Here is the input.
Amino acid sequence: MNITAEGAAVTAPHEGSPAIEHANGHVPQGSLTKLALGAVGIVFGDIGTSPIYAFRETFAGHHKLVPDALHVYGVLSLIFWSMMIIVTLKYTTIIMRADNKGEGGSLALLALINRQAGAKRRWTAGIVMLGVFATALFYGDSMITPAISVLSAVEGLTTVSSVFEPLVLPLAIGILIGLFYIQSRGTGAVGTLFGPIMVIYFAVLAGLGVVHILDYPIILVRMINPLDAVAFFAAEPGKAFLAMGSVVLAVTGAEALYADMGHFGRKPIRVAWIAVLVCLLLNYLGQGAMLLNQPPAQALETVKNPFFFLAPEGFRLPLVLLATCATIIASQAVISGAFSVTQQAIQLGFMPRLRITHTSETAAGQIYIPAINWALMVMVVLLVVFFRSSSNLAAAYGIAVTGAMAIDTILLAVVFGALWKWPAWKAWPLVALFLLVDMTYFGANLLKIPAGGWFPLLIGATAFTLLTTWAKGRQLMIDRMAEASLPMEVFIKSAAVSATRVPGTAVFMTSSAKGVPHALLHNLKHNKILHERVMLLTVRIEDVPFVSAEKRLSHDDLGAGFFRIMLRYGFMEEVDVPADLQKLEGCGPRAKMMDTSFFLARQTLIASSRPGMAIWREKLFSWMLRNAESAMEFFKLPTNRVVELGSQVEI
Here is the structure.
């Protein structure tokens, strides 16, 4: 699929193209301990803040449960086995093995499947749509996570004193606006504090839990007993099913383990997860033990905010402050994730060009995308104002996460069969287990649609429409332009003899590695000249995160001073055409930017009734094209060396 037409990058073809040897991706630098500490600070922020609201929502949310032995044991058993099956087995043990040159996430996995599918492409269109929809759902998640996390932490102030209740919303909104405001400055300096703060936070989680477990030790055995979950379903199947819509909040953030794998590596994340898992389970056990160790009337009050009631009254305010720091870190992680996913989507051809700023000279992954940042901020603030409490937001939370998890399982099934060649007896039981758990959680969350679950579905549907419209529109534009394309051999034979040649180098950006670029035809038609050296440059985005330096550039000598240049990047890399073009050898003297002119074609779309897309999608695509960042800025071309030539294209 194509990111742009003339003057743009394209994704690598899969059929009929030679195999390309790539770099093995980047290897995270540092000791195992340092990387694991970093993973604790960044990767586990989302799932680490779940104890603040997950247990509370299961008992005191929209479908209330009495905090008695049947329900507490049943819920704890569901939480334990959900963490073991979804996070430990599915994500950290299995899915993290399906890395794309060290990178993870739905789009990275999709690119891996697409690249290795080869000729077996009968089903890849459906797989691509699923992968794109998982990405679309992520945007809904990235809006709800900061809102519910920060709001739930600030609400802890009401356990200190009811005087703070009117301040909850203003404080939460102020913190969120401040968080988005500092994104442009980068997270490098703040990032060094993330690990230690989260280590303290997880240690406090475990310590608070242990204190209450010691008063009710039998709960340790009951949590790992799956029969307690079975007993809950047997006694009250309806309530148990509804409870799963809140229990799933305990595993939100599991997909981040896979998506952030490229930052820290598989092993550090797995090692860190063992410690994080223990701390989380101890805290949930502590909340359950505290409720069972109290008189029923007191437990009904405590369950309204059990996380903060774990701490003695004098320590609740420090706990609120620590929890708020943890939720800010969790929000930072998901915002950074939205930037990374957007960059991948742009490079892989699912989004128009957007301005991307690198906030660190050493860490390539630290980027800032203003359009995404401010759009997220507006939506997050609106969510807080509209839903007004974390309990109301919890009704909207879960559908996006469970939907993405179910899609990951389907993609994993493809990996088992097409990539790893696992036998059916080994693959299908695992796929069946994961799908059973995922679809049960997804079904339970569908019941929350009227209470707020419609929001992530609306965001997902909107993002999916935009992503697919852009990809389809660009493909149609390429096809329409190819229809009027002239073979390069014919052009060279006629133009090389008749046209006046002038000194210097002309670079014509083209998305197609065949035919004559429209900008070249227009330049010759209107200016009636050709430069002594003409480079037809195609920037190709491969289905791997990184391309090795030796495979970055390739060229063909077409004769008469014409050269076809191929410049390759991975989908995690920044495009810098001038810097790489100056390294080109074998096409005469090295290119000097002051003697080089870059020619770009700018298309004006004309909507038509031709087959391809509905008129409303053509108009949407045209709007996206007009608002995309210019190719000059995206490719980092020198501003005083660029010539844009317009043309009209009917799609």
Summary: The two ends are 16 Å apart (CA to CA). DSSP finds 28 helices and nine strands in the chain.
